[in-house]
Design brief:
This protein has about 325 residues and is an alpha+beta fold. It has two domains: about 110 residues, Beta Polymerase, domain 2 (2-Layer Sandwich); about 180 residues, no CATH class. About 55% of the residues lie in helices and about 10% in strands. It has twelve helices and six strands. The protein has a four-stranded mixed β-sheet with strand order 5-4-1-6. The chain is globular, with a radius of gyration of 20 Å.
Length: about 325
């Protein structure tokens, strides 16, 4: 069985191994350990099916890199390495530096939850993550779902902005936007499961649990879209979706997003951040006095922007979304 995918070939495994060795050579001089996260880290990555039937990597390479001391200089070093490796491997490489001494104090987030329970140590001590807290499988903060939806809403905004251009989509854009739309369907399903405390890391488990959803907007449509998105994730045959109508599918998922996101946020009442932290963040990033976390303000903003209503400038939104994603 493939360590990275459910249905991938041995040739694909060899390519991923080679890519990870390249990443290790470039980053290990600056980090004591590297941990692969995401779909490949869970063994559920997507094999992209080429025209000749061969397979290529498709998912980003998301890695936690453990450092002894986390400084601005170290962050900038890994940012530079991200760019170099992404260009060399022709796939996005994301490197998240964590300070070893602070692992035991890591907040309860989806990223840290996945780091704890769904990873592969690529180099370094295989027990490096033992100090992480034991996060409860049934107590994931629901605000993490809103964070996920914000990031997926940004993908919809990318499509919306591009569709304003009369130029036809390139084949690469067509594939990328199919991927974006299916990521939104996955977010709908994951957040519906979070709301009912049925979330799991593995899509193999979530495929069963999603069919027992009790209530959410357009329940049957979400279940159908979620299962189709998982199917594409397991076997990335984008060639079979040549007739996928980006404009129509975008409108369907955008309209559902505008209903689903407010519904999801109403499933919990806790606000993000503390009074003092939120005040400091707003003074720094928004130049205003507010005790609402800037990310929560972005939740409202993405809904406005997706309705083509005036709000923050796009450049300003993208900058804040990147900072608080």
């Amino acid at each position: 069985m493939s360590p990275y995918t459910l249905k991938g070939s041995t040739e694909l495994d060899a390519r991923i191994n080679a890519d990870l060795q390249c990443i290790t050579r470039a980053t290990s001089p600056f980090a004591s350990a590297g941990i692969l996260l995401g779909s490949y880290g869970r063994g559920e990555g997507t094999p992209f099916i080429n025209l000749d039937g061969s397979q290529s990597p498709f998912n980003d390479y998301d890695l936690i890199v453990i450092v002894n001391k986390l400084t601005h200089r170290i962050r900038q070093k890994f940012k530079a390495l991200e760019k170099q490796l992404s260009e060399k491997l022709h796939l996005p490489v994301d490197l998240y530096p964590y300070q070893a001494s602070r692992l035991r104090k890591c907040e309860f987030s989806l990223l840290n939850y996945e780091m704890k329970y769904g990873h592969k140590v690529i180099w370094g001590n295989t027990n490096i993550l033992d100090p992480l807290p034991n996060y409860s499988h049934t107590a994931i903060p629901l605000s993490e779902g809103s964070r996920l939806l914000l990031n997926r809403g940004k993908l919809l905004l990318d499509i919306q902005q591009r569709l304003k251009d009369p130029e036809p989509l390139t084949p690469e854009e067509h594939i990328r936007f199919i991927k974006f739309i299916h990521k939104v369907w996955l977010a709908f399903g994951d957040c519906a499961l979070l709301a009912e405390k049925k979330y799991a890391l593995s899509y193999r488990i979530k495929k069963d649990r999603i069919q027992n959803l009790e209530a959410c907007p357009h329940r049957d449509l979400i279940i159908e879209g979620y299962l189709k998105a998982i199917q594409l994730k397991e076997w990335g045959d984008f060639q079979s979706l040549n007739h996928f109508n980006i404009k129509e599918e975008f409108k369907t998922v955008r309209d559902l997003f505008l209903l689903f996101f407010p519904w999801y946020r109403n499933q919990y009442s806790a606000h993000e951040g503390s009074f003092s932290k939120n005040l400091a963040l707003n003074l720094k990033w928004n130049n205003k006095f507010s005790t609402t976390h800037p990310r929560e303000q972005l939740y409202d903003t993405i809904l406005i922007l997706l309705q083509n209503k005036p709000s923050l400038s796009m450049a300003r939104f993208y900058k804040l979304q990147q900072r608080f994603s």
